[in-house]
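Researcher:
Attend to token order:
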Amino acid sequence: MNIKFKPSEAIIDVKNHYCPGCTHGIINNIIGEVLEELNILNKSIGIASVGCSVLMYDYLNCDFISASHGRAPAVATAVSRLLKDRVVFTYQGDGDLAAIGMSEIIHAALRGENIVVIFINNCTYGMTGGQMAPTTLKGQITETTPYGREVDSHGPPVKVCELLETIEGIRYLERVSTHNVREVMKAKKAIKKAFEYVKNGEGFSFVEILSICPTNWRKNIYDSLKWVEENMVKEFELKVFKD
């Protein structure tokens, strides 16, 4: 039999909890494929944050630790320093990383910890019902900004990569997206490069990924992907910040 494709052994064959169309599932699959391709599945340890990613340990066939809200980089730091032969990564949303966990991510980067950080940016608090997040766009309607985010009272959206770009301790920093197949392939290259650097002990590697939240955005999947391309990409430039 000529097998063209087979699922990654890193992905556990179970139904996930993500909403239909959510690109968390795509990103989970990418991470699994990368761990298998780099032959580091059995030596990788993921740190699951609080948010839509909280059950990620049910989907990837590697060790996981569940961290308190925003504290994944601190937990990852401890694991990485204690188990230097392991590849440690966090998986965090914008409500987790860019709000309650902002100090954690900045100081982990300043120390140049040898960890991979996968940062999912969908401009909203997904798991808790669609409230305004630090990354919510100007004018974007959420549960807590029914008339749109107002810069005068709420401030502008936080651009995490641009903040981290000023830090010397970072080995790799890139922002990618998942709004079409071409961008998904670019996202996989970025994630793979980040894991390669940490596998080789080269230091802190961070990939921000623009994602969709059809449920809280109240859009269908097609319109959500289009909204990323027409709005999020204009605010959050897709590029390599450090390599």
The domain at 24-242 is CATH 3.40.50.970 (Rossmann fold).
